Amino acid sequence: MTKENPFLVAQQQLDQCAKILKLDPGVQALLKVPSRELHVSIPVKMDDGSLKVFQGFRVQYNDAKGPCKGGIRFHPEETIDTVRALAAWMTWKCSLLDLPLGGGKGGIICNPKELSQGELERLSRAYINQVGRIIGPDKDIPAPDVYTTPQIMAWMMDEYSRGAGKNQFGLLTGKPLAIGGSKGRGDATARGGLYTVREAARELGIDLSRATIAVQGFGNAGYYAAYLAQELFGSKVVAVSDSQGCILSDDGLDAQKVASHKAATSTVCNFPGARAISDEELLALDVDILFPAALEGVITAENAPNIRAKIVAELANGPTTPDADVILYKNGVHLIPDFLCNAGGVTVSYFEMVQNFYMYYWEEEDVHKRLDQKMTTAYHSVLDTSRKYKINMRQAAYVVAVERVVEAMKLRGWV
Ligand code: NAD
Prior knowledge:
This protein is α/β, with parallel strands linked by helices. It has helices spanning 6-21, 25-31, 80-96, 117-131, 150-164, 188-204, 220-233, 255-265, 279-283, 322-330, 338-341, 344-358, 364-389, 393-411, and strands at 36-45, 51-62, 68-75, 102-109, 140-144, 212-216, 236-242, 245-248, 275-277, 289-292, 311-313, 334-336. The protein is 46% helix and 17% strand. Strand 3 (68-75), helix 3 (80-96) and strand 4 form a beta-alpha-beta unit. The radius of gyration is 21 Å and the shape is globular. Nicotinamide-adenine-dinucleotide (NAD) is lined by residues 189, 216-222, 241-243, 279, 293-295, 315-317, 342, 345.
């Protein structure tokens, strides 16, 4: 999947779903393309006095169910097709979680590591000046994504508020707590994924207090998944990895201690008491739950036959290729697909929007309770659909999500 055009992948996935749902060809054609997209040229005065022009995008894929929602990425290899694919996936993700939202995504082609703080701030503000005409708290609500941070969200919100002449906290989510962020956003993706794992374990008769876990990618999503699996369920994390290597300990790894070790040495490697294993060994471990939480395209037709985990919980976006999906399903591996498993982030982002509108902020336990309710309901709707149509969990997630968007379009008289 890494080398494939992600937008073509997204379109193929939709075609498969259209076949299952016997969608009208016209409806299918409409769902295969974004509703609208804005391409912008962004002039920025650099610290050395020169003027540099950056290219940026905002794609609004489908807003039949509500205003668009989706992150803004800053990346040197950003392409319009990546943004289109991610906007499509956001549409299906919001629909699957039954959020009153459509899907969108934005991006700027830039390398934030080469920009000073001042340049980054000017670029962020200039982007909002350009796309401000199509986004807004009731139109399209961005959020942080690859290489964008709560600080960048704060500058963007401030720029938009200046233009509006009043505070517009609801412009975007993922803001710092002091200016309208939500409690519980930090670990929301992993926590939401764990709620779906809990439901899957119940279905499969796995006792999570005795379960073993492997995590590929000990970053934001992966660390919290390991930590919360220990905290919430008492599960044993036996292996974790990062871009520099993988470690295994049959006695279990303490997630917080591994995180401190990584903070001190920049890697999980050489953690005392653990031994090094290869990435292929990690993926093939005889564990109850495997969390791919790093990159796309890591579970392929080559290594899928070796996977022995009972549950594969996709915290990363797109870790499993379409060929591998078929193999895992045939081998009885229970897969929790990415746009279900990692939907906790956008769900708490939606809660942030609600709190901004109400000007009333929830306690962390309220956020957890509502997140649990949303994730649990979504998991069971996917499981029931997979059983009803005898299709795999990814196809079932598509069916649930697309059906709802089609219903909204029909009710509105679009199709
Ligand atoms: P992150 O940058 O915090 O962590 C990624 C981790 O993966 C790092 O520890 C990195 O060292 C590791 N990694 C990189 N290459 C690797 C390799 N070849 N083998 C093993 N590990 C490797 O990123 P994140 O925010 O945790 O995101 C991880 C995945 O989860 C991405 O696919 C992202 O799109 C998805 N996701 C994250 C969120 C979120 O809220 N953080 C929400 C939805 C989806």
